[in-house]
Specification:
heterodimer; A: alpha+beta; 2 domains; two-stranded antiparallel ribbon; 13 helices; 14 strands; elongated; B: Rossmann fold; six-stranded mixed β-sheet
């Protein structure tokens, strides 16, 4: 049969049995649309998570003291403590791209109070620490600038510490002793859970940096500096700015190496990558399952419809159609149906995505790759399962095809 | 392959067909011989199960024999490939079924055009015109856009006959063409066959009614897969006359 005739016969036969064609196409339409929309929702959710992680403090910049160089043997970062409160002041005064900055004075030791004792980490920080680390208080209050200046012995407990020392009581207002120095508990931090390395974020006590320096350490060096850039896009510039300020503050000449290290975002980015990877795997498997289910639907309808048409095949064979004529006819029909259904499915997916974005809080982004995968998968299944049973019927003796019930 | 000295349009030699039902072998035709010449009008008769439909299907190249040889228009069909078989069905034979076997929801015209679409030789230039012409020949020129569902049984069978004629075959085979029709319509259909035969077309048909068989020129009787009688008809009936009789009976 000529191509023109072939297409005409295919279209006619599709239109002749509207219900059957509609059902077949519907399988493809829904399969394709469902997969595209689902992955679009997944992409939307992924982006949302990434946004949230970014807002949790990925604008973070950390400045570590540099490594020492003793007799040619280079020691690790922080092997010589060279940061003082003056460095923090310098950055604070000169930086233009930073939202806030805090020193971190790290120590640790045995803490006694309430019903027991506990070995934990103690960090001396500035008043804006909660903002930089995107943390919040569960109860009580944080220390103020006044506490920092007057080196007040006040402490804010992490959730784990609060639970260990005061399992039954409210820790606010209670006395604890950190390395035998008495502190008053003024607040409890909200739980932050584990960090990306699996360590407990809540196993910590926060106090004013000055208090920790003077009352606990008796020194003037701070462990490192944490700062927060104005925005994610400015983070590299802000990092460069800090470097410049620090080099100037430490009187380094042009050729000299930095005696400090500036890092940003590392842990946060890692967390984000891990989260989105898990999400992607999850969505990909759900998408895969729904594609297969959609494919089985198409398969069923095609198998039934071709079986139903065995008599038609018999009639065509009896008037002289070759096996190949029959197969080409069914192939043409399958392709027309699959392509039309696939296109309608894509349009439907765009429509649903538009509605989701406009009228619900659920963000959805269509991925062009998924359109391609979904349409070709549905198409291949539609074509194969239209073609295969037709081939079987076309290979019968005409009389057997005609007698088929 | 072609043998000009052979005037038989159909020549079968020791043809057998055995159906297999599970482990059971059911012989439908037992080594029969038959020759039919050009221009003949043969009625094949026999009780149900006598093998007459099996014979028709073999003659129509719709089925393949278990053993024996079948020459159609001098061509040995045993040696043909599937595609050559299809070409024979398309160009040499017009087949009329008891159940019409028209494509549903397809107009009479398109049904009749169907064989032309599969004619790779393109012997007919204008399929639509040719289809119209044969529909006119069977008296259905005012029903060409009707679908089978909108036509009576007799009209559907006329469409099927038109379809069998459209490729200008040398042979028309009809398997109980009037089996689903009342007697008046049946006589009309036989009238059509007589007319076509008068125009030179060879016709072989199956019927189980002796009255209708008398419209043919020769009767071949089958029983249990064997030919038991083969004779020419002396008191042949003519559909034109029979129709006048039926009309008179209706009036009386």
């Amino acid at each position: 049969m000529e191509a023109k005739n072939l297409l005409r016969v295919a279209l006619k036969s599709i239109l002749k049995s509207r219900m059957r064609s509609l059902l077949t196409a519907l399988g493809i339409i829904i399969g394709v649309a469902a997969v595209i929309v689902m992955v679009a929702i997944g992409n939307g959710a992924q982006k949302k998570v990434e946004d949230q992680i970014a807002s949790l403090g990925s604008n973070l910049i950390v400045v570590f003291p540099g490594s020492s160089n003793s007799g040619g043997v280079r020691m690790g970062a922080g092997s010589i403590n060279r940061f003082t409160m003056k460095d923090v002041e310098q950055i604070k005064e000169n930086a233009t791209l930073l939202k806030c900055i805090t020193p971190i004075v790290s120590t640790g030791g045995q803490v006694i109070g309430g019903t027991g004792n506990w070995n934990t980490r103690v960090e001396g920080v500035a008043t804006n620490y909660l903002e930089i680390s995107n943390w919040s208080l569960a109860s009580g209050e944080f220390f103020t600038e006044k506490d920092v200046i007057s080196r007040t012995k006040v402490a804010v407990l992490g959730k784990t510490v609060a639970d260990q020392l005061f399992p039954n009581d409210d820790p606010i207002g209670q006395q604890i002793r950190i390395k035998n120095v008495p502190f008053r508990v003024i607040g409890v931090l909200a739980s932050k859970g584990q960090n990306v390395m699996g360590a407990d974020n809540d196993d910590i006590i926060i106090a004013p940096a000055t208090t920790v320096l003077d009352r606990l350490l008796g020194g003037r060096y701070i462990s490192f500096i944490m700062a927060s850039a104005n925005s994610l896009s400015q983070i590299d510039q802000a990092q460069a700015e800090i470097e410049t300020i620090m080099r100037k503050a430490h009187n380094l000449n042009a050729g000299e190496e930095n005696d400090f290290t500036v890092r940003n975002q590392a842990e946060i980015t890692q967390a984000a990558t891990e989260t989105s990877q898990v999400l992607t795997i999850l969505l990909a498997s759900v998408a895969g399952v729904s594609l297969i289910v959609g494919g089985i639907g198409i398969m069923n309808i095609m198998l039934v419809s071709v079986t139903e048409r065995t008599r038609e095949i018999g009639i065509r064979l009896s008037v002289g159609a070759r096996t190949s004529d029959i197969m080409i006819q069914f192939l043409t029909e399958s392709i027309v149906l699959s392509v039309t259904g696939g296109l309608i499915g894509v349009l439907l997916a765009f429509g649903i995505t538009f509605i989701l974005n406009e009228y619900t809080s659920q963000a959805a982004y269509i991925n062009p790759q998924i359109i391609f995968i979904a349409v070709s998968f549905a198409g291949i299944i539609g074509i194969f399962f239209g073609f295969y049973p037709a081939r079987k019927a076309a290979n019968l003796n005409p009389i057997d095809a005609l007698r088929y019930e | 392959m072609e043998n000009p000295s052979d005037k038989n349009i159909i020549k079968i030699v020791e043809l057998s067909k055995t159906y297999r039902v599970g482990d059971l072998e059911v012989p439908a035709l037992k080594t029969i011989d038959l020759k039919i010449d050009e221009g003949e009008f043969v009625a094949i008769m026999g009780a149900s199960g006598s093998g007459k439909s099996t014979l028709m299907n073999l003659l129509g190249c719709l089925d393949t024999p278990t053993s024996g040889e079948y020459y159609l228009d001098g061509i040995n069909t045993n040696k043909l490939t599937r595609n050559e078989y299809a070409a024979i069905r398309n160009q040499k034979i017009g087949f009329v079924f008891q159940g019409y076997n028209l494509l549903a929801r397809t107009s009479a015209l398109e049904n009749v055009e169907l064989p032309l679409m599969y004619d790779r030789a393109h012997r007919i230039n204008n399929p639509a015109e040719k289809a119209l012409e044969v529909l006119r020949r069977v008296g259905l020129e005012d029903r060409i856009h009707h679908e089978p569902g909108q036509l009576s049984g007799g009209q559907q069978q006329r469409v099927a006959i038109a379809r069998s004629l459209v490729n200008e075959p040398s042979l028309i085979l009809a398997d109980e063409p009037t089996g689903n029709l009342d007697s008046k319509m049946s006589v009309e259909i036989f009238g059509l066959f007589q007319k076509l035969n008068d125009e030179g077309i060879t016709i072989v048909l199956v019927t189980h009614e002796r009255d209708f068989a008398k419209f043919a020129k020769r009767i071949v009787e089958l029983k249990d897969g064997k030919i038991i009688k083969d004779h020419f008809i002396k008191d042949r009936l003519f559909a034109r006359e029979e129709l006048i009789k039926i009309k008179e009976e209706e009036l009386a």
